[in-house]
Amino acid sequence: MKKVLIIFIxxxxxxxxxxxxxxxxxxxxxxxxxxxxxxxxxWLAGTWIDAGYEITxxxxxxxxxxxxxxxxxxxGSINITYEEEITDxxxxxxxxxxxxxxxxxxxTEYEFEKVSDTEIKRINQNTIYTKQQDDWENCNLFDExxxxxxxxxxxxxxxxxxxxxxxxxxxxxIHFEDGTIETDESDPNSYIQRAIRIDKEAxxxxxxxxxxxxxSGIDYTVIGRLYNSDYSDQYFVIYEEDIRGVIKTIFFE
Length: 253
Fold this sequence. Notes:
This protein has 253 residues and is mainly beta. It has two domains: 23-131, no CATH class; 147-252, Lipoxygenase-1 (Sandwich), CATH 2.60.60. Helix content is 7%, strand content 48%.
């Protein structure tokens, strides 16, 4: 009996020694998600309200261009399992999706580093995501038929064309009631990101993005966001996957 008890104690000690590491790392492989408490919440990139993550006690959601999609919504439609690695300042989740007969699978991994109690960073990216005090509220895609109130203050229009061709030009014409027009035009650049001030007296703005090289068959994403004067409110986001012929008219009141 004593021999059996000694063997049992050794077995238990060995089991726990293999499952616990010196750096307090926890690894989970299962069919449910269980993120650590410190990363749960809504995390948005900078002043953007249309890009980030919402992480709950049992789900992992993506916020992109005013749409939220959650991994939990996929359960039942495909076989899906998760691999999680957790420490006090690191969290990774690998999402493994496979077909019904498990003959093919894909694996996508997301790694995050805790910067502070209110900031996290995606590993291998420079973007800092800030924790929000409130639940995520759906933002607005640009509506050409809408009239956007400036509420008696200037606004900022932030435009970016990532990986643009060398002859891409962004032009914003700001129109006023007396007929005058202010024009802001970028120099051809390999990467365009500009913040353009819109005077509170403006009646409309016309955005034109041109590809002077006329590159056929190549898409370059255009993203534009309109903010109030201190960037505390985002009115809308414009998203176009091809810069050729992009012309948008934004009306103000």
